[in-house]
Amino acid sequence: MSKYTSFPEPNEDHNPFQDPSVTQHSSNTDYPTLDLYNPFDTGAPGPPPPYEATPPSAPPPSQTPPIRTTPTEPRNYGSYGTQQSAVSATTAELQRKQEELERKARELERRERELDSHARGTGSSRQNNWPPLPSFCPVGPCFYQDINVEISQGFQRIVTIMYYFWLCTAGTLIFNFISSLAMFCVDVNNGVGLGLAILWLLLFTPCSFVCWYRPVYKAFRSDSSFNFFAFFFVFFAQVVVYIIMTIGIPGWGFSGWIVGLSALKKNVAVGVIMLLNAVLFTAQAAMGVVLLKRVHSLYRQTGASFQKAQAEFATEVFSNQAVRQAAAGATASAAQGAFTGAR
Known about the structure:
By secondary structure, the chain is mainly alpha-helical. It is 63% helix and 0% strand.
């Protein structure tokens, strides 16, 4: 054989685990593990300890991200009954709004039909309806008035208040007549006051309607600057008259504070009636100041001005047929007089 190959002798007991190529890679034999136990090693102290299986450690709990609802996913904020009640309330609210919109649509359609008929000039729809007199009365209504149709929705409330204020003015004048009549029954020397009370009732009731209520009605109806200025002038004078009524100067026909306090000395019942009338005059004067300021604030929102009032006045005057005829007659008379004088 080759010199590089050597075989052990047959009678030689050779331990393959004692081979230097194996022992140099082995660990300490005292380490009590089964994989390093050598059963052929006679010098071992004893058998290895029994194998104890180590239980597998539990994996750490996985952190699940919180579930987020999508915008389209409904959220459960309460029980089923709460959700049902909320849905029912929402449905009722939507139904109420729908009914209100339908009512406003019908009202708007009605107003449009009436305005169209007014624009066409149909006589049946433009018949005067105020004052509401019975059919057997020989005198018919003098004005056409419909606040819900002719006045825009933003100004209907103030025009309605002005109308009721005029009704209160007429009622206060009637009560003034009653209190003056009661005073005349106690003191016959109060005949002048009773006569003036009748005069104020017959004069102020229609004049206040024509001179300041109708101008404010037409001002808000057609955004007329001229009617606004006419209202301000006349209604300011009316407020001054209300203050005079509240004072109650003796002999002027107004049951104010002075007349009412003096009537208490003559008759308590009559004095109480006149003092109640004085309270009504006071409230009327205060309300008149408030309404004057309120209309003035709305007037500033409409875009009216004094220049527009002048233009409207000039247009109204020159478009009036009677004024044009009078001017033409005056011009013809002046021309004829000048021609006659020249001859």
